[in-house]
Amino acid sequence: MTVDRGCVSAKFQIFELLLAFCSVNGVRSVVCKLFVQSPTIQEVFSRRGQRSGTQSTDPFLAAVQWGAQPVQSTPNTPLLAIDFLKEIFEVSNHRHRQKQYVRLSKSLLSL
């Protein structure tokens, strides 16, 4: 399997940016909340009456998938994804959102 280095670089930069937002007081909880509560790609397209043409992907699950990638094939990107997932868990746990926390925990079992 070959990995497009441009795609990996973009993903790396996205996770860097998300973590930078998480380091700002007041922004961290908003970013994590929006990331977890955002609609899936399929839901967005269905509201518009279009077909996505892609696999239904939840942004949180996409981060889980990137966190599960081998570090050898995508240097540092999985580590940043895991750091970002940690931020999401800290925010969810701090806000005592049990249902959300259980859903997120089950998604991480693959890691």
Briefly, what is this?
Helices cover 65% and strands 0% of the residues. It is an all-alpha fold and 111 residues long.
Task: Kindly describe this structure.
This protein has one domain. It starts with a helix and ends with a helix. The longest helix is centred in the first third of the chain and has 18 residues. It has 111 residues and is an all-alpha fold. The chain is built from six helices and no strands.
Quickly list its features.
single chain, mainly alpha
Task: Give the tally of β-strands.
Answer: 0
Low-confidence stretches: none
Radius of gyration: 15 Å
Form type: globular
The averaged pLDDT comes out at 75
What is the subunit arrangement here?
single chain
Helix content: 55-70%
Give the SSE order as H and E letters: HHHHHH
How many domains make up the 3D coordinates?
A: 1
Mind describing the biggest β-sheet? none
Structural class: mainly alpha
Topology:
Layout: H1 5-22, H2 28-37, H3 41-47, H4 59-67, H5 77-94, H6 98-107
Helix pairs in contact: 1-5, 2-5, 4-5
